[in-house]
Amino acid sequence: MSNEAKTPLQVLVDVINKRLRKIFPTQDVGLMGQIDFHLRKADGSVSDWSLKNLIMDAGENEVAKLIGGLTASPFDYIAIGTDNTAPADSQTALIAEISTNGGARTQDATPETTANVLTVSVTFTFTGVLAIMEVGLLNEAAAGDMLARQIFAVINVDNNDQLTVTWSICCGVAR
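^ thats the sequence. predicted structure below, dont judge the formating
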């Protein structure tokens, strides 16, 4: 900090800037996501947990297109996979997406928005053994753009187990 005295003009500018920061606070309008998992095993046992996710570059670009009306492909598909490669902004798809044993990409036909939060929820009912380690939120039944992705410790599922994945994407500040 300088020991020099401030001029009356500098003092006035500081006062005005301080007041403007109160009137017009900075606004972070970003995307944040949380994934809630609900695993119901065939034996009746239940586990619940949550994770944050990484928003992907391609997903951010598609959100900008949605805002501008340049695309009509909402993010309402959830996919699961078997790879635990760390999420990176540049990824456009899951590394090893599952398409068998009840683990195929699934659409939420009725996603909801409330107070700037999109909620997409699907339930996978498994018909065989799988080791799940990744999840993604996408905008098409095949290929498409991935908005978000996350990896986690392996979830081992068996025949007749059910995994409900609920993805909440907050646009801006949570209310």
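The chain has one domain: 28-171.
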